[in-house]
Amino acid sequence: MIASTSSAQEQVIKNFTVDTMLYTSSEKAAAAWRPMQGALAPIPATVDGVRCLTLPCHFRPSTQRALWEKDIDVDLTQYNYLYFRFKAPDLSAIGNVAIYLQSGDKGWYLCDDHTVVRLLTDQWMTALIPIKAFREVGEPAGWEQITKMRISIWQRKDIATSVSISDIRFQKIDLVNLVHNSGFEYASIDRHPDYWGPGHWGLREGRWTAKMDQWRETWRIDDTVAHQGKNSLRVVQTAEADILEHRVVSTFFPTTKNKPYTFSAWLKSDQPNGQEVELKIYTLKNTWVKKTFTVTHTWKRYEVGFTPKKTSPRTRSAICPTTQGTLWIDSVQAEAGTTATTYQPAFKDITIIGHAVQNNEPAIADYPIIAGSNTGTSSIDTNRRFLVDGKPFIPTTVGWDKEPTPNAIRDLALSGFNTLCFTAYPSQTVASLRTIMDNANTLGLKITQH
Fold first, then answer.
1. What are residue 303's DSSP bridge partners?
2. 248 closest CA partner among 263, 262, 259, 260
3. CA separation for the pair 310, 351 (Å, rounded)
4. Is residue 369 a contact partner of residue 357, using CB atoms and an 8 Å limit?
């Protein structure tokens, strides 16, 4: 089930339902979703309580893919996202999932860059794919003339498997909040929120780096105190020297030149006379905008406005307690405009994560996974060890703030390092990232983000 709040619903401006999958017979399902090129008919089903169509994929050496097609009539200039739910019982058999949208008699719009297959799990998940992720094939007549949808599932193994799919629709979504995990509701690592980190996203003070467990108790999720939802972030500031280690810094979000924005957060402190806290914004050139507040012992919203001088994909927000005390942070929001509006979680937090948000599973990466022999499953065990394919793994690397060249990747591998670490920017193309990852994979290197 998708997390459902009134705030979330306010962001969905418009819906066009392609199919709710509520078919009463196989004949009706097959008439709506026509199997093509030898594919088997779709099967109406209820899987884990969800009404859906199960698409049988009986892959054989002569069968590269299975596909189904449905007639639709929609003007997609009115929408900006494709939404649907899906699951797959056997991920190893599926190489890719492609979605085609026919426009006119001579062309299609196609999304086939592993956007969907990278999300597949054996649990129900939700996909939210930007319309701009589709590319032209042939000569499509325009987004206002979409007449067919085709789902194509490509094989990886010659076995019989299936994919279940439900609730397909196009949506017009107003993306208000730019900050991911703004309510600290999910975490890949116990009690430490995804998409957030301390100053410089690392610890520099020797007394903390040698005592990580103690630091974790001073910078963690608190599930007993919240302004909204279940969690807040609790930061215990103990001394002036700990300002950097107890700063709360978001991941990057995009901002536009000369456009006003407002950054806000709900805060409270345990200090009866108040605690000094700075709200900060810094952009590509580390130009700081900050405002200092005295935070009281009751929940209150604090905000700071800023207008970037340059367009940047690398704007970040920071909340910095500068005097001693315990600070609780919740309902963080960065948005276009000169004043803070009613708090809304970022839409990605609500829908694209699906079950992962509710089950505290790892957040989904922003870039596609590249298939290959060097890919692996990573996790953190109860002893907080990093595991790859179930075995402890210690990354050794040199970090790049820009795209590493093929020679740099080669030199890294020849020098005995086991991991490539680099910064992936929104301005990079999928093709350039794929080249970097494929080069690393060929040389036996794992990938991590800087």
1. 264
2. 263
3. 30
4. no
User: CA nearest 263: which of 223, 318, 189?
Assistant: 318
CATH number at residue 60: 2.60.120.430
H-run or E-run covering 56: strand 50-58
Q: Is residue 357 in a domain?
A: no
Residues 296, 160 within the same domain: no
Which of 29-43, 47-61, 82-96, 402-416 has the highest average model confidence (pLDDT)? Answer: 29-43
3-state secondary structure of 70: strand
Residue-number span of the structural domain to which 146 is assigned: 6-173
Residues 220 and 303 in one domain: yes
Phi first, then psi, for residue 207 (nearest 5°) are: -70, -20
* Mean per-residue pLDDT, 78-82: 89
Structure tokens at 151: 């789902």
Q: What is the count of structural domains for the chain?
A: 3
Residues 335 and 203 reside in one and the same domain: yes
The tens digit of pLDDT for each residue in 194-250 reads 889 887 666 766 667 667 788 888 999 999 999 988 899 999 998 655 677 788 999
Residues in Cβ contact with 359 at an 8 Å cutoff, skipping those fewer than 6 apart: none
Nearest Cα residue to 419 out of 434, 391, 399, 390: 399
- Establish if 189 belongs to a structural domain: no
187 vs 136: which has the higher pLDDT:
136
pLDDT surpasses 70 at 450: no
Long-range pairs, 214-221, Cβ under 8 A, ≥24? 215/245, 216/191, 216/192, 218/242, 218/246, 219/192, 219/245, 219/246, 219/248, 220/191, 220/192, 221/184, 221/187, 221/191, 221/192, 221/193
Model confidence at 359: pLDDT above 60:
no
Q: Are residues 23 and 153 in the same domain?
A: yes
On whether residue 183 sits in a domain, the answer given is: no
299 and 419, same structural domain?
no
Same domain, 371 and 223: no
User: Percent of the chain, pLDDT > 70?
Assistant: 81
Q: What is the CATH number for 206?
A: 2.60.120.260
Q: Do 215 and 164 fall into the same domain?
A: no
Is the pLDDT confidence value at 81 over 60?
A: yes
Give 147's DSSP letter: E
Say whether both 371 and 267 belong to one domain: no
pLDDT of 116 higher than 90: no
* Structure-model confidence comparison of residues 292 and 365, the more confident one: 292
pTM for this model (two decimals):
0.55
